[in-house]
Amino acid sequence: MSTVVRLAADQLLRSVDELADLLADTVNGGASVGFLAPLDRDAAVEWWRGRADVLAKGGLAVWAAYARGRIVGTVSLAFPDKPNSSHRAEVVKLMVHREGRGKGLGRSLLATAERAAAEAGVTLLNLDTETDSPAESLYRSAGWTRAGVIPDYARTPDGVLRPTTIFYKYVVAAEGSEPALSG
Fold first, then answer.
1. What is the biggest distance separating any 2 CA atoms in the chain, rounded to whole angstroms?
2. Please, which pLDDT band fits residue 13 given cuts at 50, 70 and 90?
3. The pLDDT of residue 183 is above 60
């Protein structure tokens, strides 16, 4: 059983060590989330620290899933800063620790991000993931629509170029909600 909590910037900063451990576990376990393996822990800590300012300014929302007193998963929403895109957000860095996979936590984190997007007035979500990865199956089963594939888009943690699948999903904005950012 896990609890999912939305992090404020100060909470993120207090949690950078655990978040860095999760990021390192994800990358070193072979998931393509923007980093190459082996991921240096100090680099992971610095990357998470760099998110705090964006989070504080409203350009990012971050959730952490806790189980047995530690962070076992995370998901974020990145909000564009352009006035013509205040209706959309990108799901980024959906990660579940290898020990916690296959138990529905990824699906729970994704649903959390979708609900929060709707509450923020977002109507369109997008994301990208490594083609033919386990994550791709999750997004398809959660009702996401495949927009297409870009060949050789990103390197896997071991450095191999792989295609990326782009997905999108419409969510129903909560009544009376305002767009996430005013630009």
1. 46
2. very high
3. no
Q: What is the mean pLDDT of residues 81-104?
A: 95
Residue with tokens 């100090």: 42
Indicate the DSSP class of residue 123: -
Q: Cβ neighbours of residue 54 under 8 Å, at least 6 residues apart?
A: 60
Cα separation, 125 vs 171, in Å, equals 7
Distance, in Å, from the CA atom of 101 to the CA atom of 5, rounded to the nearest integer, reads 18
Coil/strand/helix, residue 43:
helix
pTM of the model: 0.93
Residue in 122, 96, 106 with CA at minimum distance from that of residue 21: 96
Whole-angstrom Cα distance, residue 21 to residue 25?
A: 6
State the amino acid at position 13 in one-letter form: L
Name the DSSP class of 59: S
Distance of alpha carbon 86 from alpha carbon 181, whole angstroms: 6
CA distance 74 to 26: 11
